[in-house]
Amino acid sequence: MKIVQQHIVRHQEQFSDHPFFARLSTDPPFERLAPFPVCLTFWVMTFQDILRICDERATDPGYKHMVHRHRLEDAGHDRWFLGDLAALGLEPPTAAELFGERHRAARNASLALLSEALRARHDACRLTLLLTLESAGHVFFERVARYLERIGERRRLRYFSQTHLDVEKAHDVFEEDTDARIEAIALDEETRTEALQLIDRCYRELTGMFDAIEAQIAAGAARPALAPSKPRSAREAARETARGAAPRVVRTPVMRPFARRAPRGDGGSPG
Predict the structure, then answer these.
(1) What is the pTM of this model?
(2) CA 199 to CA 4: how far, in whole Å?
């Protein structure tokens, strides 16, 4: 699977240049990143089902051991995410919001990636799917954790923390001996082709999701900040009411709803 691993790395390097991560490098105020991070809710929850389905459908004992171990290592990270939303003072989206327009890109990507787990014909492809998602996760968690550290975020976070990144990099599939075993796996041409195409599709979906997140952030940043309302006297309020004018309301901007290894000497990228 060495060719498969190298293909993952090439996509990982391209993904690390996404405009969303470029934005983080400028250290914007956290509130200017809306709808992030609430917009990731559907994806974070779906990821747990992707792990489960890959585990339940793997049959080869060698692959089964790695996939099952990976599922156990990532179990509970959805609760970390919800805990971080609470720590950040953000409400998780309602069911109606999750299936609304603002979460459509996350749903599209999540369901497409879930379909990869369902339709994979080989255990090698199931493992490839998990390795691909982890490679993107290493980029994401590293960039976000560094950003939060630079802006002085002091709230106790787990999902968006350096600790989570350390946990991801410590997964069994990234241990040197396990990684060497994966690299040494020989795939027939058909399976290798399917695995390479799977990687292409996965990164296309992930990129599309982050394209949508970035577009929403950019749209919000382009809007001028709302000025505070000018205090009115009781007489002014009475006059407006008499004229049938609607009460003036200034709405406070809110957070709008809406996770591989660096290979050894073969063109690795930041984890």
Answers:
(1) 0.79
(2) 8
